[in-house]
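Sample intake sheet
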Amino acid sequence: MSELDRLKEQLVYLRLWLGIVVVAEISLIGWLASAVDTASIRLLALAIATAVLLGFGIFLLHRQIQRRIDEIGKL
């Protein structure tokens, strides 16, 4: 497998995971918006912490994708 094909496959795989994490983040934020009045403080705090971690994961995945795109551009 050539280096270009390997980088393209990595890019596709990272984009798949980025999509999954974004959907999870959107779902969690939607749940937070609808359950803010009824959920316990502990559950809300856990959901907010998870949303922050998912946001950080989105940022890291984006950086990885950008690196792969840059590597493909150098080939």
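Comment: Residues 6 and 44 are 41 Å apart (CA to CA). The chain has one domain: 3-74.
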